[in-house]
Each structure stands twice: as C-alpha cells, then as structure tokens.
User: What shape does this take?
Amino acid sequence: MSTEVQEKAEGGFCEVKRIPIVAGNWESRGDLESLFFASNNLNMMHFDPGTMQVLVAPSDLHLMEVSQTVNKNINVIAKNMS
Assistant: This one.
C-alpha cells in the first residue's frame, strides 16, 4: 500500500469518466396519495444506474415517505435550505 500523496489529479479533464446526473427538485404540494402516485411513476422508469445517476429532492417533510417508496436505484436527497 502506497502512502505517497499525488501532486496533481489523475488524468486530464477529458480523461476522467463522468456519470451523468439527472436530478429533480420535487415540489410536493399534494397529499400523500399524490406523493405515492409520483413515486410509482418514478419507479416505472427504466435506466442503467451504471450509466446515469437519478436523484430527487422532495420537501423535507416528505423525505422519509419518498425514500421508502422509490426504487433503490433512485437517490433521495435533501434540499439546501440556506
């Protein structure tokens, strides 16, 4: 195991593999039924998690419900409230 610190980043800008991110700021103004309807629609999406990352940012009140209802390949993130 090497303990050397690299002096510069590996590879150039075009050499680093990047995974596209698709993110949505989820404005949840409906009731729980509409929340579950939207989660089920997200669950019907077909994509390869190895080629893209999908994130949704529901309101803080709905983080738990959304994280429990969407598929594991959809990332639930909190909004920045600052």
